Amino acid sequence: MTFMLLEHSARPLRLQGNKITAATVIPLSKARLSAGDYVGATSGLIIRLISCSGHLTPGPEAKDAFYLSNATPATLDEAAAGAQDGEVFVPTHGTWRIQRLLAEGIKPLHWPDSLDDYWITVSFVQNHLVRGCGWLRKTGATGEMILVNGELTNGSSITVTGMKTLRQATVECECRDFAIVES
pTM for this one? Predict the structure, then answer.
C-alpha cells in the first residue's frame, strides 16, 4: 500500500548491526501497509519498509490531524536517509499513477481550522462518484492535493472527504478549482 514520508532522520541509526532510518509515514491504509520494497514516485529512490507500528503522541494542536492522517512511526532501511520528506512511495510491483494538484477556492463544509497545514488522508468525490484517494494539505482557501490511481475532470468541483470521521462527523471540504502540477 502507498504511503507518504512525512519526516525522517537524515542520518541512519545502527541497530543490532544494521543501519536503519527512523521515520514517520502517512499510509493510505494503515491496515494494508506491509513490509517490503517501495519506490519514490518522484525520485525513483528504492527503499525498504522494515516495520510500521507503534503510536505517536502529538501535541494538543496536532491531535486531530494525526488521528485523521493515520500518521505512524516506521523503520526504513539506510537508503531512506536520502529521501525527501513529503514524497509518496508505492510498492515496487504494480502500476501506480500519482498526481500532484494545486487547489484554489477551497470551501470548508466541515473542516476544522486545526487541520490546516497538515496532510490528511482523504477520498476525492466528483459528480457523486469516488474518483480516487490520496492526501490534502489545506492552507486557508488553497491547498495541495495528491491523487493516487484516480482521475478528476477539470471544470467540475470536487468534494474532499476525510477517510475517518472526527467526533462522529464527516470531515470534508469542497474544491472548486484545481490544476495538475505533476503527473
Answer: 0.93
